[in-house]
């Protein structure tokens, strides 16, 4: 009899597992979810000490200054608080950022982590700040300026002038951005055609206008009317200038002079000043394997519609080596 009773009890426990009964599994699932929910709620009511990333909010005069590199969005801190608060920070829900006030934003600067304590404590609701783990946050601002520039047709990617005279609508556009970048923009500002149009075209096309990073324009595209023009070509000899080279007077370039092909419209020939065509060699682009450096053109005057250097690279030689090279 006891053996029979034991078999009946075992069968009663095993039967729901061997025979599919929806009500049984529904009850098991509900009990499991209730147990997990109670466990999570109980865990979130306890205090924990952990490391979190807390958001920052920068306060500065954004009408006169602009950050020239991304501002730090958060700092790493060690805090103690209930699980509910920590979960809210992890999910980014209803968090009051800590303010970082920059009273004199001009130029580069840094804020030590210890200087952020007061702002973090004031922003943290229900959390205890133990330590600021981020040592220093850096920033760099520049004055926000606007500059209106006339437009001109940019040369081809090869440096050759496009045989067109261009009329732009609007004739000039406004650039807004960091002072160092905006003030360095060439005037007139070059507008690049998406592709060279047919030589017989006299119609209008719309061309997008782009600018450097952090610089905004008041229009996104301009209307360009192209008219075919004759272009004259002249070859001049220019001596490259040293740029960023060490203060060694014996450093020379070979060849010492390079040909530059300039292109201009016929009516501008009287205004052409070849001394304004400057070529420079940048030491930062020196190739150590063959001691060569690439040449570049400085911004060209308005009357020059295109320019191309006949020798793209030159060798960097010491004074002794330079004397041993036969002259051309």
Write the layout of secondary structure elements.
Layout: H1 2-18, H2 22-44, E1 47-59, E2 65-67, E3 74-82, H3 83-91, E4 98-101, E5 107-112, H4 117-123, E6 128-132, E7 136-153, E8 164-169, E9 172-178, H5 179-182, E10 189-191, E11 204-208, E12 216-217, E13 221-228, E14 232-238, E15 241-243, E16 252-254, E17 258-264, E18 279-282, E19 292-297, E20 304-309, E21 313-317, H6 319-324
Parallel strand pairs: 1-4, 7-10, 15-18
Antiparallel strand pairs: 1-3, 2-7, 3-6, 5-7, 7-9, 8-13, 9-12, 11-13, 14-17, 16-21, 17-20, 18-19, 19-21
What does it look like?
The chain is elongated. The chain contains six helices and 21 strands. It has 328 residues and is an alpha+beta fold. The C terminus is likely disordered. The strands form five sheets. Strands 2, 5, 7, 9, 10 and 12 form a six-stranded mixed beta sheet that branches. This is YbbR-like domain-containing protein.
């Amino acid at each position: 009899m006891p053996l029979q009773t034991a078999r009946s009890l075992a069968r009663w426990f095993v039967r729901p597992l061997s025979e599919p009964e929806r009500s049984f599994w529904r009850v098991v699932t509900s009990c499991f979810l209730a147990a997990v929910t109670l466990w999570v709620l109980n865990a979130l009511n306890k205090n924990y000490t952990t490391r979190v990333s807390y958001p920052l909010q920068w306060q500065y005069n954004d009408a006169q200054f602009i950050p020239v590199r991304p501002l730090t969005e958060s700092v790493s801190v060690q805090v103690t608080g209930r699980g509910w608060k920590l979960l809210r920070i992890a999910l980014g829900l209803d968090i009051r950022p800590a303010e970082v006030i920059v009273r004199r934003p001009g130029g580069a600067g840094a804020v030590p982590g210890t200087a952020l304590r007061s702002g973090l404590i004031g922003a943290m609701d229900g959390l205890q700040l133990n330590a600021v783990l981020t040592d220093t946050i850096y920033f760099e601002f520049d004055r926000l300026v606007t500059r209106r520039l006339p437009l001109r047709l940019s040369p081809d990617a090869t440096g050759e002038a496009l045989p067109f005279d261009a009329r732009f609508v609007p004739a000039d556009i406004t650039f807004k951005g960091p002072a160092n970048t905006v003030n360095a923009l060439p005037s007139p500002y070059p507008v690049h055609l998406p592709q060279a149009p047919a030589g017989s075209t006299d119609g209008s096309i719309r061309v997008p206008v782009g600018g450097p990073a952090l610089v905004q324009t008041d229009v996104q595209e301009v209307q360009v009317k192209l008219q075919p023009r004759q272009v004259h070509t002249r070859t001049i000899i220019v001596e490259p200038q040293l740029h960023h080279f060490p203060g060694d007077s014996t450093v020379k370039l070979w060849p010492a002079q390079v040909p530059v092909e300039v292109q201009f419209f016929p009516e501008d020939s009287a205004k052409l000043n070849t001394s304004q065509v400057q070529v420079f060699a940048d030491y930062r682009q020196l190739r150590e394997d063959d001691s060569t450096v690439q040449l570049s053109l400085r911004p060209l005057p308005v009357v020059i519609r295109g320019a191309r250097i006949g020798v793209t690279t030159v060798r960097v030689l010491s004074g002794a080596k330079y004397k041993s090279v036969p002259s051309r």
